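In response to the reviewer comment on reproducibility (Comment 2.3), we provide here a single inverse folding case reported in full, input and output, so that an independent group could reproduce the run without further information from us. The structure tokens appear first.
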């Protein structure tokens, strides 16, 4: 997708725009005919229109070649527009996984709920944006039990001692004792619960 590629072949990276450099990296990734491409923050530092072009290019060439793409990103908008499934991680562990519409529209893990509640809606006016209390733990000092327990509004003693695995939670799966089929934790009201998440 670079104009006049035969004249640009000998150009140096600093002579390309950010979008052109991303196209070169995509071409390099596709040259080996991979079945899976892992794209780590492919739209970082690109303006919105170039982001859309890069994502459309990546989707098109991967569909043509039958390759799968794994996007690693913090941009929930990119995920909502591009992905079929999403996996949310916290402190190096998978905490929720499922179809994009389910995870974004009906988050089941308290961390995912907080992420979605922090996105401002166009139809609502707020004095302050929602934020998850506390800070991420250092990876060398992850607390026992659920790593999110010091910041979780629903945390109980079990959360501080036992680490949950992924459990069925509506249309997704979440690593949270709120969804234990045998002994679910009671859900407490939190600021994240009051935010309407509509996509």
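Designed residues, in position order:
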């Amino acid at each position: 997708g670079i104009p006049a590629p035969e004249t640009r072949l000998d150009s140096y990276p600093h002579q390309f725009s950010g979008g052109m450099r991303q196209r070169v990296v995509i071409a390099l990734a596709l040259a080996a005919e991979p079945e899976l491409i892992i794209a780590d923050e492919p739209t970082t530092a690109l303006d919105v229109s170039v982001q859309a072009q890069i994502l459309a290019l990546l989707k098109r060439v991967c569909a043509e070649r039958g390759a799968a793409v794994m996007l690693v990103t913090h941009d929930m908008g990119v995920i909502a527009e591009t992905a079929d499934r999403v996996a949310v991680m916290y402190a190096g562990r998978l905490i929720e996984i499922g179809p994009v519409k389910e995870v974004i529209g009906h988050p089941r893990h308290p961390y995912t709920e907080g992420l979605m509640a922090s996105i401002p809606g166009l139809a609502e006016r707020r004095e302050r944006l929602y934020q998850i209390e506390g800070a991420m733990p250092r990876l060398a000092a992850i607390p026992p039990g659920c790593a999110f327990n010091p910041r979780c509004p629903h945390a109980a003693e079990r959360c501080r001692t036992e680490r949950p695995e992924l459990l069925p939670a509506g249309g997704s799966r979440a690593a949270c004792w709120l969804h234990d089929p045998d002994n679910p934790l009671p859900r407490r009201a939190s600021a994240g619960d009051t935010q309407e998440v509509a996509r």
